[in-house]
Amino acid sequence: MTEQGHASYKSYWVVFVVLAVLTVLEIAVANRSLGIPRKPVALALITMALSKATLVGLFYMHLKSEKRALKLTVALPFLFPALYAVILIGEAGWRLIR
Amino acid sequence: MSAIATAASGSHSVAHALPVDEYFGNATVGKIGMWIFLLSDAFSFGGLLLAYGILRGGSEVWHHPGEPTLGIPFTAFLTFLLICSSVTMVLAVAAATEGNRKQTMLFLALTALGGAGFLTGQFHEYFGLFPGGHGLAHEGLIFGHSAYASTFYVTTSFHGAHVLTGTTYILITLARTAAGKTNANDVEVLGLFWHFVDLIWILVFTFIYLL
Fold first, then answer.
1. Considering only CA atoms, which of B85, B155, B91, B75 is closest in space to residue B116?
2. I need a surface site. Which of A15, A98, B42, B180 has the fewest CB within 10 A?
3. Which residues of chain A neighbour B184 with C-beta distances below 8 Å?
4. Chain centroid to CA A18
5. Average per-residue pLDDT in chain B?
6. Which range marks the domain in which residue A30 is found?
7. A40 and A19, same structural domain?
8. How many domains are there within chain A?
9. A32 with A74, same domain?
10. C-alpha dist (Å) from residue A62 to A56, A65, B116, B194
11. What is the complex's ipTM, to 2 decimals?
């Protein structure tokens, strides 16, 4: 079992507030009428989304309090989709501007 | 399966107790199994999001004239609803760990309500719930007419299917908890699935709606 107690209750609410704030920030940044260049916006959005996903995994799915082997079992396979994303989406974009 | 055996033998969490493993500690077979399933499921979503990225990254015109834009404020509300349901789920798991059955049931019910709300919202977004209201399907976002429309429907409906599955899974666990047939591990494994559904939505919302 995962460790529970007052400390975890506090972390659940802290994570909730961070998720809510990041969501509001994302929506604000994505607003096209602000006229921010799209590339930094995209980078900021992807960073915030991945941070939110990581927070859910670590604190709500309790990965943080699991053993190292389970953490690695879950985390390492994502290197491959990340690699495919960079190569394949980059390639599609490159063909377009070439 | 083993939970039923547990209930039949009248003891709690004994059937799940395994010798502490050198690498996986006291993670149960159910938990490790759910994590492995979630990994495979994550790659399904990964494939869909990759296809979306490749199609969008390689297209000169993504959003064709006549196609509606996606409603961000409404979907942001749905996103918030899912985040709230993740909190109630984690509270249900905590209550189950403390052996508080009434609170476990209350939080599971609230989580199921959040899931049902999300599904209703998604139906409204697609087809329009109210008479005279317009869903995306009536406003010109037609599956098969453009990569924009098709990737949108495939990805969001695949996620919607997970919300439906998750809500059903919660309701089954709620009924079994009411009958005294679950233990903390069952609720924890259910929690993993539900948080995964929230986690995926965080990514889908950002990539499909905001980018």
1. B85
2. A98
3. 1
4. 12
5. 91
6. 1-65
7. yes
8. 2
9. no
10. 8, 6, 25, 13
11. 0.91
* Interval B178-196: pLDDT, tens: 999 999 999 999 999 999 9
- Asked whether residue B13 carries a pLDDT value surpassing 50, the answer given is no
Closest CA to B52 of A92, A45, A53, A75: A92
Q: What is the pLDDT of residues A6-35, one digit of tens each?
A: 678 999 999 999 999 999 999 999 998 888
Q: Give dist(CA B163, CA B157) in Å, integer.
A: 9
User: Percent of chain B scored above 90 by pLDDT?
Assistant: 82
> CB-based contact (8 Å) between A17 and chain B?
no
- A67/B25 Cβ within 8 A: yes
Overall size of chain B counted in residues: 211
Q: How close B46 comes to chain A (CA, Å)?
A: 7
State the pTM of this model: 0.90
Which residues of chain A does B190 touch, with a Cβ-Cβ cutoff of 8 Å? none
Q: Are B146 and B67 in contact (CB under 8 A)?
A: yes
Instruction: Say whether pLDDT at B15 is over 90.
Output: no
Helix B29-57 crosses helix B184-204 at what angle (to 10 degrees)?
10
Pair A49, A74 in one domain: no
Residues A52, A80, single domain; the answer is no
Same domain, A45 and A15: yes
A11 with A56, same domain: the answer is: yes
Same domain assignment for residues A17 and A39: yes
The reply to whether A74 and A54 lie within a common domain is: no
pLDDT (tens digit per residue) in B112-129: 999 999 999 999 999 998
Tell me what pLDDT residue B27 has: 87
